[in-house]
Design a protein that fits this description.
alpha/beta; Urease, subunit C, domain 1; 2 domains; eight-stranded mixed β-sheet; 11 helices; binds zinc ion
């Protein structure tokens, strides 16, 4: 693996004030040094426009040997983005389709989705409903270009819950289980959680309230018994990881957190009392504002059912308010998207929506350092010496032009390797 020098980079990373451009030296996939002149002895002659995709290889000699040089020209360099809520196997808005298409088709579509996420600048994703040991192994073997891939495997649902895609009138049997599993009772929960963790799941995902795309469960009503949630938490905690839960209403969030869940997905209907409880318990919130905005605008195009449309209306407007309430209560706030099917191309729009509530500094922190902390990753999510060199190089100053984060060109660097000149 070669060295890479990003010259004239305006480092934008959590907790560090704006400063003059510096150089960022990358060796063996990690950030080796940051500062003025750290590349001295490396760069000779003119280097040009990194964010435009031009780099110069083979600068000479010096203490660090040879390096490819990428001139940021004073533009922002940020950590690679982390998406805490995506679904590689979420290739449709219809749970029924996803559970009945052959897994070979779903996996190949997933490969395209993951590569597209990486090209947008997401160098790490957490899949909270889908993924399996085979997909993870294919990524490790380099069979596809993908962000670093953390997955929970199928999200676990009670019978008649958000992950039960059957039509209540038609009944029938659940499908392949690649995105959701229907699990009832503490004993079955214990076995399934142990299996998922044994097979490499990063964490466990529970569906503890109704959801937009499921046909017959009210949004607000809590799902799973306390004993079922507690068993999942007990097994995950003993294994050194955590449980995250899909929940919208205060009742469902309370039900989850009281029984040991440490991360809440969506949380759109959050109120002050519940936010205070989350903060006291150290539970994090992953807003997924992109999903509701996209389903609202493009629901017809992607086949959102009338029931789904009605449910989406209930959570759309409340999503941004929930972020404000969580922030005021001191809840740790990450960033997720939750885009199913063709809506995946809206992934960067989630940053715009969160920025409208939180501003650029907090939004970038949520999608980098905070998500990394929630995932328990200690060496990604910051532009810092010793960290993995997952970085984005933009074409301007993000602090002055926040919109570059969601609509600007960027060079994506993953573990010190340039993924794409720009996108
Ligand atoms: Zn989801």
């Amino acid at each position: 693996m070669g060295n890479l020098l990003i010259a004239n980079a305006r480092v934008f990373t959590a907790g560090v004030p704006d400063a003059e451009p510096v150089d960022v030296l990358i060796k063996d996939g990690r950030i080796a040094a940051i500062g003025p002149g750290v590349g001295n002895g490396l760069s000779h002659g003119e280097t040009r426009g990194g964010a435009h995709g031009e780099t110069h290889g083979g600068a000479h000699g010096g203490a660090h040997g040879e390096a490819q040089v990428l001139d940021a020209r004073g533009a922002s360099v940020t950590p690679g983005l982390l998406d805490a809520h995506c679904h590689a196997y979420g290739v449709s808005l219809s749970l029924d389709e996803m559970e009945h298409w052959p897994l070979s088709l779903i996996a190949l579509k997933a490969a395209r989705r993951l590569e597209a996420a990486l090209r947008r600048g997401f160098t790490t994703v957490r899949d909270v409903g889908g993924g399996d040991p085979g997909l993870a192994q294919a990524i490790r073997e380099g069979l596809l270009r993908s962000p670093r891939y953390l997955y929970t495997g199928p999200a676990l649902s009670q019978t008649g819950g958000h992950g039960d895609g059957r039509d209540p009138l038609l009944g029938g049997t659940p499908g392949c289980g690649c995105c959701t599993n229907v699990i009832d009772g503490p004993d079955r929960m214990r076995v399934r959680v142990r299996e998922l963790l044994w097979q490499g799941a990063h964490a466990i995902k529970l569906l503890t309230s109704g959801g937009v795309v499921s046909p017959a469960d009210p949004l607000a009503i809590p799902q799973f018994s306390p004993a079922e949630i507690q068993v999942a938490v007990e097994e995950a905690t003993r294994r050194g990881t955590y449980v995250t839960a899909h929940a919208y209403s205060p009742a469902a969030i309370k039900h989850s957190v009281e029984n040991g869940v440490r991360c809440i997905e969506h949380g759109n209907l959050l109120d002050e009392e519940t936010a205070a409880m989350m903060a006291a318990a150290g539970a994090s919130l992953i807003p997924t504002l992109a999903a509701y905005d996209a389903m609202d605008r493009r629901g017809d195009q992607v086949g959102l059912t009338p029931v789904g449309r009605e449910k989406n209306t209930q959570v759309l407007a409340a999503g941004k308010e929930a972020v404000k309430i969580a922030r005021a209560a001191g809840v740790r706030i990450g960033f997720g998207t939750d885009l199913m099917g063709a809506l995946e191309d809206e992934q960067l729009q989630g940053l715009r929506l969160q920025c409208e509530v939180e501003g650029i500094e907090r939004t970038l922190e949520a999608a980098t350092a905070t998500n990394a902390a929630i995932f328990g990753l200690s060496d990604v999510g910051r532009v810092q010496e010793g960290f993995v060199a997952d970085l984005l190089v933009f074409t301007g100053n993000l602090r002055e032009q926040p919109e570059l984060l969601w609509e600007g060109r960027r060079t994506v660097i993953q573990a010190g390797e340039i993924v794409s000149p720009c996108c």
